[in-house]
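Narrative of accomplishments. A recurring question from our advisory board has been how the design workflow behaves on a single, concrete structure rather than in aggregate. To address it, we present the structure tokens for one chain from the evaluation set, followed by the sequence designed for it. No filtering or post-editing was applied between the two.
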């Protein structure tokens, strides 16, 4: 694809009611499409509040099969609006087997493919290993009606390997549906640095690979006052040289619509030819867990 395309990022608050969240997401997708978006990406696990703040087996009831209710509803909407939708879902693959999965719905309403989150965190209030089996589909790109895209999910943001593989596979843009925020007890001391690190690592992926990056986060406080998370929003799009060309606030629901031009990637890669100069003959050690001295 060589023509410019427009992406829509939906940054929203989530209620405890999955049906309410789906209805809100549908309205936001309609808004993005009305403003010219051709690809619309929703935040991570948009159908619920971020349930991984605690380990509770009852919360597996939030999961759904793919294809399932969400892909059916969003597929119909994608077909009606002629847009591509990236939807992050809690997938029930089988009894006792669950994934954190992004479904890519093409602009004909069909599922173009799935990406199952590869890197699964286990940190205070991010107890994802309790719920999710690591992805087994690898790092994939997807052919859509508006070009080739890559999709990774949240914790994948911190790993350069996934972004590089997507870039090498010819993606025009890499989407990161996200759920990340501040612990209340840490915000005053570390909050600004944490947000800056999150933004910086993704801008670095854009620069290193000469690719557009779109990160989509939620907003709002979820959970008890002393054990909840304040999601920091700040959804953004960076161009192939890492320049932030649009960014949402830290605390408000917003729909960003941004034009991306594949010719910008061509320009950047010609002048900063990082892919040309890779020493693929010398990178075998990166496949080791650790290099013993």
């Amino acid at each position: 694809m060589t023509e410019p395309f427009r992406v829509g990022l939906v940054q929203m608050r989530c209620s405890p009611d999955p049906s309410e969240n789906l209805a809100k997401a549908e309205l936001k997708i309609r808004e993005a499409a009305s403003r010219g978006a051709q690809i619309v990406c929703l935040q991570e696990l948009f159908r619920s509040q971020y349930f991984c703040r605690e380990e509770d087996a009852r919360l597996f009831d939030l999961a759904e099969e793919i294809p399932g209710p969400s892909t059916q509803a969003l597929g119909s909407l994608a077909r009606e609006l002629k847009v591509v939708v990236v939807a992050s879902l809690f997938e029930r693959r089988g009894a006792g087997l669950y994934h954190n999965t992004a479904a890519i719905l093409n602009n004909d309403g069909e599922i173009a493919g799935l990406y199952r989150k590869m890197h699964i965190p286990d940190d205070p209030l991010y107890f994802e290993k309790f719920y999710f089996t690591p992805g087994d589909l690898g790092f994939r790109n997807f052919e859509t009606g508006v070009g080739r895209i890559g999709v990774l999910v949240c914790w994948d943001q911190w790993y350069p390997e996934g972004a590089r593989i997507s870039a090498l596979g010819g993606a025009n843009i890499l989407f990161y549906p996200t759920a990340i925020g501040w612990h209340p007890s840490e915000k005053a001391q570390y909050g600004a640095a944490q947000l800056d690190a999150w933004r910086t690592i993704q801008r670095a992926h854009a620069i290193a690979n000469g690719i557009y990056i779109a990160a989509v986060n939620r907003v709002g406080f979820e959970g008890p006052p002393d054990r909840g998370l304040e999601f920091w929003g700040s959804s953004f799009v960076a161009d192939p040289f890492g320049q932030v060309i649009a960014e949402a606030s830290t605390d408000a629901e917003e729909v960003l619509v941004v034009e991306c031009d594949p010719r910008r990637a061509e320009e950047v890669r010609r002048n900063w030819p990082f892919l040309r100069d890779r020493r693929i003959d010398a990178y075998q050690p990166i496949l080791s867990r650790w290099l013993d001295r």
